[in-house]
Amino acid sequence: MAEQQTPNKKLPRIKGTNFTIMEVNLISRRVVEELGLLRGKFGPDITADAKNKIWAKITDEVNALGVSYRKLSTVKTKFRNLTRDAKEKFTYERKERNKTGGGPAPKPISMAEKNIINAMKDTSSFKGIDGGMETSVDSITSDQMFTAVTISLVPALNGFPTCQTVDDLPSSVESIWIRRLEQVHQRNEELALSSATVHASLPVPVPAQKQTCTHQPPKPSESMQKKKAKRTADDVYELQCLVLESDLKRNEMQMELFQRQMQFYNMMIQKKTIDSENMILDALLITEA
């Protein structure tokens, strides 16, 4: 018998061992120490051979831990992924500083990512180009971002006992109310500004004497010159209380209207029963006669 030829089967891909925290911290620390050489521009002292030697040295130190054998390309890819994750968390943390709260909690920053952020937070890849779209996202520095004290947006319980509990947290509904309040205040400021311009455009009476007088246009008030105050969570809770009170009054009025309708309905039923009884009595009297 001829030997049967078995079809070529695709061999399963051998998956490498995941990096441990000790390996990740070592890669982050060593690359940050040699960051000036690894990310520097090529010149007489900085060559591709010198960079490859540093990467090979870091790879040997990682393999010396004895967890698993790592290739040089694998170590480079791991550091590239760490840099990408650190940049995403750094950018997200910077953007969330000016928001009112709510939404998912930010992912915790590991020690390796923190080392990368501290070393590269002032570079253009993390900070962005001056004059670009993201330079005005926040007004705080990168050092303040990781040392700032977390401020709770939930006011004290005694301030609003009927509309708030201790477990209440800002949500997307509160952000909608805050945007609505900002729109209302902006519209009020526009109306005030338009009224001021109308008063300024009215004719000024000139005295009969032939005197030359210069009239200066009225200066805008200091309140208009000041920057619009940012709405806080207290304003949102106050507005929610007003809405709940109006809903309660409307419900009470609807209940009162329903009770009156029921009274009217009962009166109509009683009237119909009395009319039917009178008709029966009249019919009986007619038959007896």
TrEMBL record:
Residues 90-109, 209-231 are annotated as: Disordered. This is Myb/SANT-like DNA-binding domain-containing protein. Residues 90-99 have a biased composition (Basic and acidic residues). InterPro entries: Myb_DNA-bind_5 (IPR028002). It comes from the Eukaryota. Pfam families: Myb_DNA-bind_5. GO terms for cellular component: nucleus. It comes from Mytilus galloprovincialis (Mediterranean mussel). Residues 16-90 form the Myb/SANT-like DNA-binding domain.
